[in-house]
Amino acid sequence: MEWSQTLLLYGVLIGCFLFGGVLIGAAIGVVGIVGVTLASGTRLWPTFGDVIWNTATSFTLVAIPLFVLMGEIILRSGLASRFYGGVADLLRGVPGALAHTNIVGCAAFSALAGSTVATAMTVGTVAVPEMRRRRYSDVLTLGSLTGGGCLGILIPPSIPMIVYASITQTSVLAIFMAGILPGLLLAAAFVLYISLRVLLQPGLGPSGEATGEAPRSRLNGLRDCLPVAVLIMAVISSMYFGIVTPTEAAGFGSLLALLLGLLYRDLDLKSLMLALRNAVTTSCVVMFITLFAQFLSFAVTTSGVSRDLSVALADAGIGPFVFFCLLIAIYVVIGMFIDGLSIMLLTVPVLFPVFEVMGYDAVWMGVVLVLLIELGALTPPMGLNLLAVQSISNAPLGVIGRSSLPYAVIILGFCLLLYAVPQIALLIPELVRR
């Protein structure tokens, strides 16, 4: 069977399964088994056991449940609400202060949660009622949450980055470090957009920040921000200076989060059990999809689809920039229907050899793919950030979508900037290697 026919068959089968209501992990796994069977019969079926074992025992993937646990403890211990209030105090008096607080809060919690949806919901749970109480427009509130939530998988730690590194055998530390500067610059771009928007449309925010409550000092705000800031710096700097591996940093971060929760006496036994339960549930879902995605990766390798696709593109004379634009279009369309992690697991096994043929750096490409996944989180009907914010705000999905559009445009422009200036992503990894 020709590679194009095989690739089309994979796409049709996955589409039919998904529209039929089959879980994404199961759909990917079945297609992988079908692909291997078509290529080699049942001769390679015993290899599936090796695939499961090697994936499930991967030291790299152990970081996922630990980072998830760290974020859950921070959320359940009340440190999230304390941090948000502290940032709001520090930005008091700035036009659109709470909208800026959402972006700063999302940037901070992205370094704790490693998930777009978790970041948007963590900050949104605190932000939506507070901003509505202070008479902020929903356009400003909801957009800042969906857009800011996208930082959740760009600034390390990031679950999709860990999965990408596992699939491509790339350094997790290098990809983590590559996401820091782009994440901070993207957050700055969001803040700049909000500033301009509030300047041009003052009615989006309250005329003043007075709430009838005695304003707290900025010193109190700094005190409330400090615990989370110290935790973030401890986790990231320990990886940067080579003291711990990313997996060890995840365990270290979970321990620090637990100690902080106990220190501030906000973490009781019930909250801890809830954090553990949610961490297990999330980790099981991620690992279920990841395990069966390896079946598809094995099928792609066995059938030679990725190799033949690379040769076909090289023969067609498609240049790196044209392919890059085509890649953006593909991910935007796929992102309308499939969640980000599944997109990563579906596409990377097929496209990674093509990236190498096009001369793309593997670490840089990991950051670009995370940005494109972020873009998918803002595109209906499957935009998970839109659905997450709708669940906590009860706002119409159309309003949330229109509020999120400017942030999607900013992310798209930032992808093109990364192509033009790849050092934005590669500068810190190069410093780490020295």
Note the topology.
Elements: H1 3-19, H2 24-40, H3 47-56, H4 63-76, H5 79-90, H6 97-113, H7 116-133, H8 138-149, H9 159-168, H10 172-200, H11 218-240, H12 246-263, H13 269-303, H14 305-316, H15 320-335, H16 340-357, H17 362-376, H18 384-393, H19 397-420, H20 423-433
Q: Count all strands and give the number.
A: 0
Number of domains: 1
List SSEs in N-to-C order. Answer: HHHHHHHHHHHHHHHHHHHH
Largest sheet features: none
Which stretches are poorly predicted, pLDDT < 50 over at least 5 residues? 210-214
Overall 3D form = globular
Strand content: under 5%
Radius of gyration: 22 Å
The rounded distance between the terminal residues' Cα atoms is 47 Å
Give me the secondary-structure category.
mainly alpha
Summarize the amount of helix as a percent range.
over 70%
Walk me through this protein's architecture:
With 434 residues, this protein is an all-alpha fold. The N and C termini lie far apart (47 Å). It has one domain. It is built from 20 helices and no strands. Helix 8 crosses helix 18 and helix 13 runs parallel beside helix 16.
Keywords:
434 residues; mainly alpha; globular
Quick structural overview:
The protein has 434 residues and is mostly helical. Helices cover 78% and strands 0% of the residues.
